[in-house]
Amino acid sequence: MPTQRSRNTALWALTVYITFVFVQSLFFKFTDSPETQYIFGTLDGWAGGLGFPGLFAPYGIFSQYVVGTAELIASCTLLVGAIAKKPVLQGAAALLSLGVISGAIFFHLFTPLGVQVRNADGTLDGGELFALACGVWVSAAAIAFLLRAHLTSWLQARLRPASA
Q1: How far apart, in whole angstroms, are the C-alpha atoms of residue 40 and residue 58?
Q2: Is the pTM of this model over 0.90?
Q3: Rg (CA), the chain
């Protein structure tokens, strides 16, 4: 059985990893870098072929700005939850992270984007973005698992009918 200290250390390490991955990607998303144009352009072309043009376009509902904003919110909320010792907040942010990164993994696996993404210089990234996404998924799932008791008791308290 892990000690409280080792559990807290694990939570912090997982939080820092997710935050690092999400925050370092914000520069690319918010500056419309060539890599981001390639990724979201590929996804938008794929979605357009399915009859959903503009879904991943710069002002679409799944644009780089929307995804980047969700990553920023998740990162900030993870850190605030950890610093303020609010496990429900940290757990909720882990669930948000899990949702965002599940989408990224899905699009890497089931669209023309692929596991290896083309860099601005034309080379392939060797699956680096996909590997980072998988690491974020595992980390977010681990945080949610470690904080599951806090999350379920918070949810049960909200779903419990008010006394008459």
Answers
A1: 8
A2: yes
A3: 18
